[in-house]
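Aim 2 progress update. The chain analyzed this quarter is reproduced below.
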Amino acid sequence: MPMDNWEKTYLNIWIAQFTSIMGFAFALPFAPFYIQELGVTDPAEVKIWVGLFAAATPLSLAIFSPLWGAASDRFGHRLMMLRANFSAVVVLALMGLVNSVEALIALRFLQGAFTGTLTASQIMVAAHAPSDRSGRALGSLTAAVFSGAMFGAALGGLFSEWLGYRAVFFVGSGLLFLSACLILFGTRSLKQPPTPATESNNERPAQTSRQAFWLALPILLLIVGVSYVRQFDMAMLPLLVQEIHGKLDGVSMWTGALLAISSIAGMLSGVLLGRMADRMHPARLGIGSAFIAAVAMIPHAFATAVWMLFPARFAMMFCSGGLEAITQIWLAKTTPQRHRGIIFGWASTARAIGWVAAPLSSGAIGAAFGIRPVYVVGSVLFLLIIPLMWITVQRSRANETAEDGV
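Predicted C-alpha cells:
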C-alpha cells in the first residue's frame, strides 16, 4: 500500500531527527571532559562549569521558543526545521574551534537561541499528524530521539578516544548537515489535515489559542517538573563515571556505552508506553513510571564499578523516557489540533525551564557534597512527580469542566 503525503513526510522527519540528535550526541555528552581539556582542572570548578554548560542552551531555548513558535505559525513549520538544523551545523562546528570555556558556554547559549531541532520537529508532527495517529507519531518521534542519541553517544565515545574531543564536534556538525539536507530535499509543507468524524470532544470550534493555553497549562507545568527531574543528573553522569573509573583515560568510551544503553531504554519506552498511552489515561502510566524510576536511581549513588550502572540506568531511563512521551501525548490529546503548533511551542519553553534548573541545582549539589548525593536527591524528585501528576489530573478536569460551562 503506497504511503500518503503525510506518511512520506513523517518518515523523512523521523530520519532527520534521528540524524540530528545523533550529531548532537556525537559530541555534547563528552563536554565535561572537553572542559577539562580547555584548562579547568579544579574538581569543584569543573562541576560548576558543567552545570553552566548544560543550562545555557535550555535557558536561551526557553526565551526564544515562543518567538520561533509564532514564526512557525506565520512562515511555516518546515522553514523552522530548516532554520534549526542549519543553525546547529554552524554552532556545533564553532564549538570545536574554541580555546576557552567561556566561549564554549556562549556558543551553548546561541545553540538554544537558533537551533532546537526537536522542538521544530515536534511542532510539525503535532500540527499535521492525523488526530487518530498523533499519539503514535509523537511516541515514535521520541524513539527517534533516543535511538539517535544511542548511536551518537556510542560512536562519539569511540571517536573522541581516537581523534580527540575537538574532532567529534566537526563530525557531529557533518551529521547535522545531512539532517538539514534531508529536510530540505525530503519534505514539503503540508496543509492542515482533515478532521475525521471521530475527532475527540476536546475540539471546540470557538476555542481561541488563549483558551487552549489555559486548558493545557496544568500539563505544561507538569512538563516543567518532568523535564527537571529527567535532566537532574544528566550533566553529572560523565563525572560519576569518571569518579568510579578512577581516571580520565578511557572514560569517554564507558560514558558512551552507558549513554547508548540509556538511549535503547528510552527508545523502547517511547514506542511501547506511547502506544499504551493511546489506550489508557497517560497519568496512570506516568505514576508507575515515576515510582520505578525513583527506585532505579538509588543504585547510582552506591555503585563501585562502572558495569553496575548499566542495569540501573536502563531501568531508570526506560521509565523516565516514558514520562517524556506520556506528557507529549497527554498534551496532544488535550489540545485542539489547530492550536497544537503554538501550544507545543510553549511546551518547548516548559521543557527548557526544567532543563535550565536541573543542571544548575545538581551542579551546586555536586560541588558542595559530591557526585553521589545528586542521585539520592534525584530519587526523591522522581517520587515527587507522583503527587504532581495527580494534581495535574485534577486541575485538567477542573479546567475542562469550566470550559464546557462557558
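DSSP finds 15 helices and no strands in the chain. The longest helix spans residues 43-75. These observations will guide the mutagenesis experiments scheduled for the next reporting period.
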